[in-house]
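Worked problem 6 (solution included).
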Amino acid sequence: MKKVITRFAPSPTGVLHIGSVRTALYAWLYARQHKGSFILRIEDTDKERSKKEYEDNIIDGLAWLGLVHDEFYRQSERGHIYKKHLKDLVSRGTAYISKEEIKEEGQHAEVIRFKNPNKVVTFRDEARGDITFDTTELGDFVIAKDFESPLYHFAVVVDDFEMGVTHIIRGDDGISNTPRQILIQEALGAPRPVYAHLPMILAPDRSKLSKRHGALAVTEYRQEGYLPAAILNFVALMGWNPGNDQEIISLDEMIKLFSLEKLQKAGAVFNIDKLKWLNKHYLKNLSINEARETILKYMPVDLKEKAEANNELFVKIVPTIIDRIATFGEVASLATEGEFTYFFIDPEYSKNDLAGKDEQSFEDIAKHLDKVVNMLNSIDAQHFTAEVIKTALWDYATEAGRGRVLWPMRFALSGRSKSPDPFILSEILGKEIALRRITHAIKLVTA
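Solution. The predicted structure is:
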């Protein structure tokens, strides 16, 4: 069998978006599965709209996702190849130079047109089956402005031919381009590649996907704190099914399971909640050190300094933070709301806050917290874990009323109505700090 060669061929006229990532991923998976090659080809023949910053964005985005290419090309560096093939077609009469009127300027210019054989073209699409076009309606179409300036259809066909591309996986907006490209292939004597056109990714209301619904640049998802594994898992399942109900799927598993036959025909709906759910799964699989390093990047400077100065304490906080977030970007907003400050600084609050919904008397609060202090004192510092603390307090809290015991305890530790449970807080803070904060609460209500 011929070596499988796939390509991802973006134009550097915009940033790398989620839909383009799916196209690149499927082409990359197919090449890897068949031990073939994956080409990244920058189609920058549109000199006015092509920008180096967009090319860099595309290359960086793919590298961050781990979709490493085997070969790299820029169309702007391949002009001599296109010129050779254009001259060959013209010399054989398959293409010809035509004078065209430029209406805006009232002048004439020469273009190169392809001589259409006016035939019916049928091609096999791996996602949609056989597709037939009558090319007569296309007329003799322009393939170059001149010998130095090939247009999209011609440059693409020449590149795929010269690079030995065997499989073209792209969005279904490319279907209408295929008949022209097949005619050019046949004129060049190029073999016909296998085609697979992917359905559109739709917004939740099944309209065209827009920025409002998630059509963001990959760099924006990166900045918001999504992980590459979550992005890849998410886009893989938007248009392809592994043949089971599996929702968590690694890149290695994708390589084994991917097939063009299982591409879906219907448009896939973008679901941001699903992406967040997947990201949360991958967050929880990070090592403590990986999570710690990334959380620090998203923390405000003042809190970051406190975390780095109290690293032992911060390491214990990391699992609690991971449990609270779906993306690392949420760390910044939680920090701004004071969600983590109390770990590093004793909280300030009024004694009325300790009463909670039960609105129990200060005398009762003091009594319950005294009991908590006595029980915590009985636990050895080396065994001061959430599980041991809960076991020690649970029977008393159940008998006296969990809300009446655990609410003032938690508030004394965090100074917040929403925080991890008091057992986890006590373990993170450690015996000395936990006792100090609860003792302070007792003094506050008995003053």
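Discussion: The longest strand covers residues 95-102.
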